[in-house]
Amino acid sequence: MNVDEMRKSLQSFGWVDYLVFILMLASCAAIGIYFALQMRRKAKLNQNLTNKDAEDDYLVGGRKMKIFPIAMSLISSFISGITLLGTPTEIYLYGTQYLYIIFAMVSMGFLMHYFYLPVYHELKLISTYQYLESRYDKRVRLFGSVLFICGTMLWLPIVIYVPALAFNQATGANIHLVTPMVCLVCIFYTSVGGLKAVVWTDVVQTLLMCGAMVLIMVKGTMDIGGPSVVFQKAMDSGRIEAPNFSFDITERYTVWSLIIGGVPHWLKSNAINQNMIQRYLSLPTLKSAQKAIWYFITGVLIFLVICGYSGLLIYATYSECDPLETKLTKRKDQLLSLLVMETLGNFPGLPGLFVAGVFSAALSSLSTGLNSMSAVILEDFFKTFAKKPLTKRQTAFVMRFVVVVFGALCVALVFVVEQLGTVLQLSITLSSVANGPLLGIFTAGLMIPWVGGTGALVGGVVSLVFMMWMCVSAQLDLASGVIKYARKPYATTGCNYTFVDFAPMSLVAENITEVLEEASPPEFKLYSISYLYYTLVGALIAIVVALAVTFALGNHKVDSVDSTLLSPFARRWIERQRLNKALVPTSTDPKLPNGNFKTLAETKT
To answer: 428-475 pLDDT, tens per residue?
Structure first.
């Protein structure tokens, strides 16, 4: 059997599998219809429902959501198909070093809990970028909104493309036929059902994702001979790694890049991202939102461990016949799909469950992104520039129209993503273009009271231009082969099929373990640093330039800054400074008891 015949023999996606997949899509659509009818019923019963109430109901669930579904929605939105398929590929190719990023995740939780979320929740925002107008001015708000839309439009096509790869591996179906049909269902339930439909479909999709991954993990481990075999093969090939404490910033992963670079990477996805903040703000109290953070982090860490183990399981299964070298898989991110078809292909319905799980992850992220863009465009563009307030009908039309238009655009951009590299690195690199500057602007606003509006805008623009140059240059060098990363050892001596010249592999390579040669150290370029540092670089440039411009213009006085727009620690500091200015100690005044104070007005009198 040659490699093409082998590939076709694994595409055993039967009618039961299609039925499971269609039932998943139908359940999502049904949830959307249910909440659309519920909103209509509520509007009929309550004729006095204001435009603001209708917006809150559609965009933040009336701010009455429960912790469990919101936590599940946060997990589902964050764990896209990029994580489900990209992380196992990363572990298979480069080892377990990436998994040390879990420490950055926990650190991010503390920052989010104490510094970012208290401010957002107190302000009762719908668009996160309303904060930028309150803290700086309208120019910065519009700049932030445009960056969010651009960043989301760079990310969502990758999210859609990934599960289409899994479907292609399982069925052989054309990627560009699958994506429009599935996305149509997502656009439908997101546009009609609002946030409540998105959240509750996320709950269903999270359970599907988890079930699919656990099923693969258990069945694949049983087939290979147990966990001991998986870990032994991983140890022998050097895939299980101790922390790398190298200070070389060009290395793909070190402890420093995973933690120092990882914290800003997680922060930009949680602390400033409309997709996530919108869910936290749908909870009624700050305390419940803070609980949701830790439930979310726990869920994400569990998924990361499962995905990491799946990467080791892929290697244990194909340790003697690398499917990338033999071209059994056409793309790197199809490795997990290949494992599924080989281990579950003989069980009708189980491959369908896996594909449904991966698509669930994508649909969750897509619905979240579209719902968030609907909120941002309504609040930051239509309401800002409308000459008169929008009516309820106009508001409803705008929110749904945005979902449909941007959903269709995301589907079209899948053609571009297909030409680019591995999805995990690609998504992190491209998201840094917009989110690095945004993280810097938000962090400066929350924690550095001296930064003014003009400084923040200039800092953001300078950072954006620099990050565009950095990320595009890195992707071009990666595509042309200038930047290469040495992968872990692999072999092709145990294949039971022929490939390339259709000669048995045992004749082509006798007992040879091939290792991709590590290229000689290239000339250092700034953009050749680990891609995990990109968000940090963008944020630091924005903050430093913002401070420099603000001080150069002499606009660094903090008296006019509203302390409620600052993080709790900055708020306490600035209020203490104001108190010290307002009160003059008079302990040396013989007419007053030691430690008494006079106000400045009394002193002048």
So the answer is: 666 678 888 999 999 999 999 999 899 999 999 999 999 889 888 887
- Encoding tokens for residue 343? 């281990």
Interatomic CA distance for residues 314 and 321, integer angstroms: 11
Inter-helix orientation angle 138-171/453-480, to 10°? 20
**Residue 340: which residues within 8 A CB-CB, separation 6 or more?**
166, 170, 216, 351, 354
DSSP codes of every residue in 220-239: HHHHHT-HHHHHHHHHHTT-
List the chain residues with pLDDT less than 70. Answer: 43, 45-62, 169, 418-431, 479, 481, 483, 501-524, 556, 582-605
> In three state form, how does the secondary structure of 331-344 look?
CHHHHHHHHHHHHH
pTM: 0.81
* Contact (CB, 8 A) for 458 and 549: yes
CA–CA dist 79, 77 (Å, integer) = 6
Task: Quote the crossing angle between the two packed helices 392-417 and 350-377, to the nearest 10°.
Answer: 130
pLDDT at 103: 92
One-letter-per-residue 3-state SS of 334-379: HHHHHHHHHHHCCCCCHHHHHHHHHHHHHHHHHHHHHHHHHHHHHH
At 532 the pLDDT is 87
Decide: 376 and 145 in contact? Cβ < 8 Å: yes
Specify the DSSP element, H or E, that contains 490.
Answer: strand 490-491
